């Protein structure tokens, strides 16, 4: 890398101002494009950049007309800039010159045309001004480009041309020159905030699993937990969760969950169970004689807030040595899901973020995970979040019971009290059925019914029929005599190697008062040592 200051001899120059329009209408509150041109050099900038009002990051382009090269530079922060040099792009432009003419700002313009990434670009340029310039690098060698239109509806047009009375200098600071791909990557990443959570962490089953200063492990290594500060900007940003997974020994498809446990909370949380054992959590009983630890909210307890439900594929990466004709296995599976409506509730707070993968393998799975916050002008809402239930037994490997409470009519029931009205209320509901044999609920469609105060508010049958689309993630998925692989089979709202997306249940406006929410599922009966269960989580969200 190097840093230099480029300064050119004084030459007669022009300042051209461009504005953008869409479908014939001028775009409001736009940052006008400013182009400074001499016979030998062109600087592409904007009005805000030149007046030191630009929002970071921003870019400028410096074109050398003599050798048709250009520098692209980006200011990423107050103390960091990068750039790259391109010697070929302008020379390789394929432009069709057409006979059409029209006048723009009193100058006779000719037309050129090109197609880029399936977009048709019309370029109008004039040779009546003694400079070559363009609001883009595109067409800069034709003459002075006064208008560029993409697909007939998006136009950038010159609105003012000023010839400088005295000769001037084009200056540009070229810093930290990198290759083009590095430039694009650094520029892209500077547009949002990345919060690292886990990097190549092992989620396995082993008494040898150890915690360290930043990552705490529970349930024999099947849970990894880390304390994270959620920036206050999460309140006004679109938030995503990214998780990458590879097998580190385990060949099977497994249930995974990413969740939040609040720290500054007056209620008891799931963290008590992690530290003291499952019996430290409040029990839920539905009349079937079993006790389920920590699955429903009470007046003094808050269950896990689930961000993402994911499922590992069969042995990705670790078992890629298994060869099949015309199959090229993926090296990792990348799960990505928007979590804005949940994460923004924790803006400015310190929380525990955890990841669970249910497995009994010493090698287990390897994961990396981060959160990204993308600036957005979101509508200002005072939203509230109430975790209602979560039957995913993330402490399965520490004895927490499975979600088998749906074997009686009561199913899952939770009672809450709203001290204030809740507008536009909805339940963020995630459900997956389990029982991995022929008659188990994993492979048998079952209707989920949600009731509020005894009245049905929603019902559907969760089912995924697209699992065969992800065969390339599943090298260790066995092939059966009928020509199918295990990963091909349709399942109760999940596929090996995929995320289960939430279902949103609209409840309307809820007045203050007492509410009982109930989930009913006709859970199948056990056969021998095999049994069915359902992992359901629900979060009440409103304004």
Broad shape: elongated
Unreliable residue runs? 1-8
Assign the CATH superfamily of the largest domain. Peptide-N-glycosidase F, N-terminal domain
Q: For the terminal residues, how far apart are their CA atoms?
A: 51 Å
Major sheet summary line: 12 strands, antiparallel
pLDDT averaged residue by residue: 94
- The secondary structure category is mainly beta
Number of strands: 36
Oligomer: single chain
The CATH topology of the largest domain comes to: Jelly Rolls
Strand content: 35-45%
Quickly count the helices. Answer: 4
Give a quick precis of the structure.
It contains four helices and 36 strands.
Describe the fold and architecture.
The protein has 543 residues and is mainly beta. It has 2 domains: 4-187, outer membrane lipoprotein receptor (LolB), chain A; 192-542, Peptide-N-glycosidase F, N-terminal domain (Jelly Rolls), CATH 2.60.120.1570. It has 4 helices and 36 strands. It has helices at 47-50, 180-189, 271-276, 340-343, and strands at 4-7, 14-22, 25-26, 33-37, 41-46, 58-64, 69-77, 80-86, 96-104, 107-116, 119-126, 144-150, 154-163, 171-174, 193-203, 215-218, 223-229, 237-247, 255-262, 268-269, 283-284, 292-293, 301-302, 305-311, 333-338, 350-357, 365-375, 384-390, 412-418, 422-434, 448-452, 455-460, 499-500, 503-510, 513-520, 533-542. Strands 2, 3, 4, 5, 6, 7, 8, 9, 10, 11, 12 and 13 form a 12-stranded antiparallel β-sheet that branches. Strand 2 (14-22) and strand 3 (25-26) form a beta hairpin. The longest helix is centred in the middle third of the chain and has 10 residues, at 180-189. It is elongated and about 90 Å long. The two termini are 51 Å apart. Mean pLDDT is 94; it is low at 1-8.
């Amino acid at each position: 890398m190097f840093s230099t200051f480029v300064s050119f001899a004084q030459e007669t120059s022009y300042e051209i101002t461009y504005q953008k329009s869409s479908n014939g209408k001028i775009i409001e509150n736009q940052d006008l494009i400013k182009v400074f041109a001499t016979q030998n050099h062109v600087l592409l900038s904007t009005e805000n950049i030149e007046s030191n009002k630009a929002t970071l990051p921003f870019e400028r382009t410096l074109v050398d007309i003599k050798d048709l090269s250009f520098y692209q530079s980006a200011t990423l922060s107050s103390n960091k800039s990068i750039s790259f040099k391109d010697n070929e792009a302008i020379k390789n432009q394929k432009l069709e010159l057409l006979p059409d003419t029209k006048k723009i700002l009193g100058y006779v313009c000719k037309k050129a045309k090109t197609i880029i990434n399936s977009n048709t670009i019309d370029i109008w340029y004039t040779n009546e001004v003694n400079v070559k310039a363009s609001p883009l690098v595109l067409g800069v060698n034709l003459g002075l480009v006064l208008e560029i239109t993409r697909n007939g509806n998006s136009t950038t047009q010159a609105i003012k041309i000023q010839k400088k009375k005295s000769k001037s200098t084009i200056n540009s600071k070229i810093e930290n020159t990198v290759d083009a791909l590095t430039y694009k990557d650094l520029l892209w990443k500077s547009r949002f905030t990345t919060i690292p959570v886990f990097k190549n962490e092992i989620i396995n089953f082993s008494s040898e699993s150890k915690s360290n200063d930043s990552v705490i492990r529970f349930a024999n290594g099947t849970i990894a937990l880390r304390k994270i500060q959620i920036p206050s900007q999460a309140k006004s940003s679109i938030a995503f969760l990214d998780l990458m997974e590879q097998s580190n020994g385990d060949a099977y498809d497994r249930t995974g969950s990413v969740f939040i446990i609040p720290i500054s909370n007056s209620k008891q949380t799931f963290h008590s169970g992690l530290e003291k054992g499952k019996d430290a959590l409040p029990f839920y009983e539905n009349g079937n004689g079993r006790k389920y630890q920590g699955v429903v909210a009470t007046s003094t307890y808050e269950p896990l807030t689930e961000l993402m439900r994911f499922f590992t594929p069969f042995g990705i990466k670790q078992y890629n040595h298994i060869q099949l004709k015309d199959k090229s296995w993926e090296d990792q599976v990348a799960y990505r899901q928007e979590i804005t409506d949940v994460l923004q509730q924790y803006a400015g707070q310190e929380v525990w973020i955890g990841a669970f993968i249910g497995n009994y393998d010493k090698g287990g799975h390897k994961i990396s995970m981060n959160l990204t916050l993308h600036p957005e002008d979101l509508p200002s809402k005072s939203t509230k979040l109430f975790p209602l239930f979560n039957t995913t037994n993330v402490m399965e490997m520490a004895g927490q019971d499975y979600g088998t409470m749906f074997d009686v009519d009561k199913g899952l029931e939770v009672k809450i009290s709203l001290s204030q009205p809740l507008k536009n209320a909805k339940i963020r509901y995630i459900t997956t059925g389990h029982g991995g044999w022929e008659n188990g609920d994993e492979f048998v469609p079952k209707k989920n019914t949600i009731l509020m105060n005894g009245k049905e508010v929603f019902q559907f049958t969760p089912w995924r029929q697209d699992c065969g689309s992800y065969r390339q993630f599943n090298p260790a998925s066995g092939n059966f005599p009928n020509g199918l692989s295990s990963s091909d089979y349709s399942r109760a709202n999940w596929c090996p190697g995929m995320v289960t997306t939430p279902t949103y249940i609209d409840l309307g406006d809820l007045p203050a008062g007492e509410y009982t929410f109930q989930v009913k599922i006709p859970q199948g009966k056990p056969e021998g040592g095999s049994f069915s269960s359902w992992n359901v989580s629900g979060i009440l969200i409103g304004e």
